[in-house]
Amino acid sequence: MSPLRQRMLDALQLRGMAPRTQETYIDAVSRLARHYHRSPELLSAEEVQAYLLHLLRDRHLARASLNLYGCAFRFFYRTVLALDGEVFQIPLGPAPQALPEVLAREELARLFDCACHAKARSFLQLAYGTGLRVSELCHLRVEHIDSHADRMCLHVVQGKGAKDRFVPLSPDTLAVARAWWQVARPRTWLFGTLRDADQPLDIGMAQRWYRRACAHAGITKRGGIHTLRHCYATHLLEAGVDLHNLQQWLGHSHISTTMRYLHLARPDAPDVARRQPLALLSSLPPLH
């Protein structure tokens, strides 16, 4: 590792950035250096801006992805190299605030039925039944599942923003976790890698499971596995769960983030969903 990369990694860790953020920021600066075949500390603000335009115009990056690069460059030049932000300007543009896609309950039933194997099906069902971010579910340890009847919850350790939280477990979701444990007998991570069970599942693999199941189920709605989290939030609101509790379970810092799901919720949720709001999996319609 070069001294400059180590400086950036030290700065990221000192400020408590999540491992995923550390990896993303360092990768963005590395790509910038490879593009110009020069050390990034030798580049001018105009060259950095030209690279961002290249990503936007030639690589057709979405605005949100482009801003991620911009944030990484701002951190590198302003924090690591201590350059004046007024002189070394890296602009960020407003990202369009599109509402997320939500799958119908019948589509979810088809999706789970089309999962490529038991591990994929269990992972996708738990992603929907708990609303965890994919990184949180990949890093869920067996010991963080509390199955006692008077607790029934997951302990999310150091989720987004380095915050812990508890997420309630319904009996049907717990049954999925137990069934997978009976098959794989995991010791550390509920979902480990195939080659080494002591390593957590790779996020990219979970995304591939989701997209493969969507393709086989004939689901064409945009979005990746994070769609299951959107479905969790929307369906709980439809079933009558209050906004404050949902905010805590999702781990949102601001309730305005949770409120966007109000635009997606329909008033005509199935009766079974309203009787047992947390039993999302058992509320899905049977496949014919």
Strand content: under 5%
CATH class of the largest domain: Mainly Alpha
Could you name the CATH topology of the largest domain?
A: hpI Integrase, Chain A
Rg calculated over all Cα atoms: 21 Å
The CATH architecture designation of the largest domain is Orthogonal Bundle
| Bulk shape | globular
* Total individual domains: 2
Taken in chain order, the helices and strands follow as HHHHHHHEEEHHHHHH
Biggest sheet architecture: 3 strands, antiparallel
Helix content: 40-55%
Description:
With 288 residues, the chain is mostly helical. Helices cover 51% and strands 3% of the residues. It contains 13 helices and three strands, in the order αααααααβββαααααα. A three-stranded antiparallel β-sheet has the order 1-2-3. A hairpin with a 6-residue loop joins β1 (145-146) and β2. α3 runs antiparallel to α4, α5 packs across α9 and α6 runs antiparallel to α8.
How would you describe this structure in keywords?
288 residues; mainly alpha; DNA polymerase, domain 1; hpI Integrase, Chain A; three-stranded antiparallel beta sheet; 13 helices; 3 strands
Short description:
The chain is mainly α. 51% of the residues lie in helices and 3% in strands.
Write the layout of secondary structure elements.
Blueprint: H1 3-14, H2 19-36, H3 45-57, H4 63-80, H5 105-113, H6 118-130, H7 134-138, E1 145-146, E2 153-156, E3 165-168, H8 171-184, H9 203-217, H10 227-238, H11 243-250, H12 255-259, H13 271-275
Antiparallel strand pairs: 1-2, 2-3
